[in-house]
Amino acid sequence: MISPSTSVYKLEMICDDPLYEGLALSLDLPSRLGQDSLVDDITPGVNISPETRLWSQPNLAPGWQPPRCDGAVRPENDYPCINLFLPAFSKRAYDALSDLLLPNGELLPLVTHAGSFFFFNVTTIVDALDLEASKCKFWCDPPTTAVNVYHFEFLPDRLKGLSIFRILELPSFTFVTETFVERVKAAGLQGFCFRKVSPIPPDEHWRKNELILR
């Protein structure tokens, strides 16, 4: 069990309010990494090997050409996401959070009708989940990526200094620590949904621990 000072949250966009609509990236845009599309390039864990838990997210900044993103996103939305789950930040959020974001990934410009937004390519991937103490369902044995994690327990020493990251078992999830949450609140940013995943009691479902900043 980790202390409250190292609380971990799943970072999400707000999905139940039309004022916080997200961005959409077409599946027809060409890949720059030899994959099926640009969406594959920016989606973590697309080519994970079934024989290993290990994977990494490639750097995309070299040769990045800002793609056009559609969607009814509003300038006031600081965290609209792309295709519902890929992190995207407003210029206001970029300015407020860049010292937390840039050590852990790449902020890559997008073209939108609503002003300056940036895709955040998370490149900090940590093997921080305590598999023995957590409650997980995996696709196969030995475990690679997880179908779901019902209860999260993290290894405290592997969370030191982290603010935003992914874990090996859940490539599509973006996690943040209390440091990130407090910065977002202090900056008055909007459009963020944080779900506390740890530490919480084993019989409490993390999806119910919702903190929304509108």
From TrEMBL:
Residues 114-197 form the Immunity MXAN-0049 protein domain. It comes from the Bacteria. This is Immunity MXAN-0049 protein domain-containing protein.
